[in-house]
Amino acid sequence: MNNCPKCKKTPPEGALFCPFCGRRLGIRKRRAKARGNSTGCAYWDPSRHYWVAQVVDGYRDLPEDMKDPENKKQRIPIKKTKGGFKRKEDALAYCATLKASSKKPEIYTLSQIWDAWEPWYSPRVDPSTMAGYRAAYAYFKDLHNIKISEISANDLQSCMDACPRGKRTHQNMKVVAGLLWKYARDQHLVAQVESENLYTGKGRSKKREALTDIEVEKIRQAIGSIRYAEYIYCLCYLGYRPGELLELRKDQVLEHEGRLFLVEGKKTDAGRNRTVPVHQKIDRFVRARLWVPGTDLLFPQYTFGKASKEHPIPLFTGFKQMSDNYFREGVFKPAMASLGIAEGKVPYGARHTFSNKLKGATGADIDKARLMGHSDYTFTQTAYQTTEMDDLVSVMDSVK
């Protein structure tokens, strides 16, 4: 007879229990495990009077100030629950469904995070805002193929320091990093947001130089010889942001008593539905755009097929909306180079050109602000007869 495993004394032969400590002798049969590990559990919620299904959805690291060097368990389980069950059996059965919905998406690298985040977030903001985010994201190209969990704040800061653009782009880079890291955190791919302390650079904003009157005249003379020159010229007399100009449609051009008006505005609530009378210097160019068949865009991009032996000159294939990047890199910069205009000018400078022209125009400041899209002004067809509309026309006609 073996000794009792608890008190180590020798019990009588054939005894089922130890007479000294009461320990049961012999082989103890283990009860079969009801549920396997990580399959979830159920518990009763006494305050709501129903059963709750619960699974572990992952783990997150403890904050640095809460970590204990002597404790090996430095992670906190992230639990996912679903209540409302009348019976425990129903709650346990639902754990499998809850576990299946908790699987992490196979997203790891920064570029994969962007590809998943962009279509989800872009409907929430204006296209011009999203275009700025895309441009800012491009400056993180050295990190695109690295796992987001391995990218540190120093890596992000290095990309920002290497970016040659102005402070506005640096600010957008910080915003984009924050949005991507928050999205990844919600997917339990990272424990914290790395962009909170990024430095955008004090006073590093680059002033967008306006086009001078001489340069605007060079652009006018180039219409017909340089493709899209009329786009740039119209931009100088409308005050639109480049993205707003490229989104204009023909049905936004209205005519009253022989005068054309553009109704547009997308940047901010202050700029929505603003009305811009078409300046007399660009009236004929806008009217000509209305008669271009095959597109409802006012300032579209012409598309062409690839050149071949049979067709050495690419054939025209149709129209599409021009992107901000193509307008800047494929239209504006080549046109400025062809006309001998100094480097450093950007399409947004045409808006500053219009702003400078407004300074010398006669009229109230509030009317000038409306033309720039900096105040709330709702335009309807009945508003043509108002003195406010007459004031806008008067200001536009005094622009030289």
Give short descriptive properties of this protein.
400 residues, alpha+beta, DNA polymerase, domain 1, 4 domains, 3-stranded antiparallel β-sheet
Report the total helices: 13
- Structural category: alpha+beta
CATH homologous superfamily annotation of the largest domain: Intergrase catalytic core
Question: What is the average of the pLDDT values?
Answer: 81
Question: Strands across the major sheet, in which order?
Answer: 1-2-3
User: How far apart are the termini?
Assistant: 114 Å
Q: What is the count of β-strands?
A: 8
Shape: elongated
As for the number of domains, it is: 4
Largest sheet: 3 strands, antiparallel
Which bin fits the share of residues in helices? 25-40%
What percent of residues are in strands? 5-15%
Radius of gyration: 34 Å
Which residues form runs of ≥5 with pLDDT under 50?
267-271, 375-387
What is the CATH fold-level name of the largest domain?
hpI Integrase, Chain A
Order of helices and strands: EEEHHHHHHHHEEEHEEHHHH
| Second CATH tier, the architecture of the largest domain | Orthogonal Bundle
* CATH class placement of the largest domain: Mainly Alpha
Structure, explained:
The chain has 400 residues and is an alpha+beta fold. The protein folds into 4 domains: 1-30; 41-100, no CATH class; 110-186, DNA polymerase, domain 1, CATH 1.10.150; 213-397, Orthogonal Bundle (hpI Integrase, Chain A), CATH 1.10.443.10. It contains 13 helices and 8 strands. The chain has helices at 88-100, 110-121, 127-138, 153-162, 167-186, 213-221, 229-236, 242-247, 283-290, 324-338, 349-359, 365-372, 387-397; strands at 41-45, 50-61, 75-85, 253-256, 259-264, 274-277, 301-304, 316-320. A 3-stranded antiparallel sheet has the order 1-2-3. Strand 4 and strand 5 form a beta hairpin. The protein is elongated and about 115 Å long. 26% of the residues are buried.
